[in-house]
Design brief:
Distance between the termini: 54 Å
Strand order of the largest sheet: 1-2
Number of strands: 2
Low-confidence stretches: 1-22
Structural class: mainly alpha
Helix content: 40-55%
Radius of gyration: 22 Å
Length: 108
C-alpha cells in the first residue's frame, strides 16, 4: 500500500472482502448507495461521476428484477384509466393505436 495506508484507508468503497475477490455487485451497490445517501444527508452535492455510477448501478439492479420488462422506445406512459373504456378509446385516438404506438399502462 502506498504511503503506509491500507487500501481500505485510501478507498472509502474498499473492504476486506475485496482482497479475497468476494465482493459482489449487490454489496458494492449498497456501499456506494450508502456513501451517496450520507453525502446528501450532509447537504453535500454528488459529483457527476457519482450520479452516473448510481444510475448505472440502479439500471443493473432493476434489470435483474423479474417484474421489470424491457419496453421499446418511444413509449407512451399511461396512468390508471380505472377501466374506463371510453378514456382508452380517446387515448388511442390522440396517441395512435397499437402496434403503431407503444404504451405502458401503470395501473393497479
Amino acid at each position: 500500500p502506498a504511503a503506509g495506508f491500507s487500501e481500505s484507508a485510501r478507498n472509502p468503497f474498499f473492504c476486506k472482502s475485496q482482497e479475497a475477490g468476494l465482493l459482489d455487485a449487490h454489496h458494492l451497490f449498497k456501499m456506494e448507495l450508502d456513501h451517496c445517501i450520507a453525502k446528501l444527508i450532509e447537504c453535500r452535492s454528488l459529483t457527476e461521476v457519482e450520479i452516473r455510477q448510481l444510475c448505472e448501478l440502479a439500471q443493473e439492479e432493476l434489470t435483474r428484477e423479474s417484474n421489470v420488462r424491457r419496453v421499446n422506445s418511444p413509449v407512451t406512459v399511461v396512468g390508471d384509466i380505472h377501466g374506463q373504456f371510453h378514456d382508452l378509446l380517446e387515448l388511442f385516438r390522440i396517441g395512435g393505436r397499437a402496434p403503431n404506438t407503444n404504451y405502458l399502462f401503470m395501473g393497479d
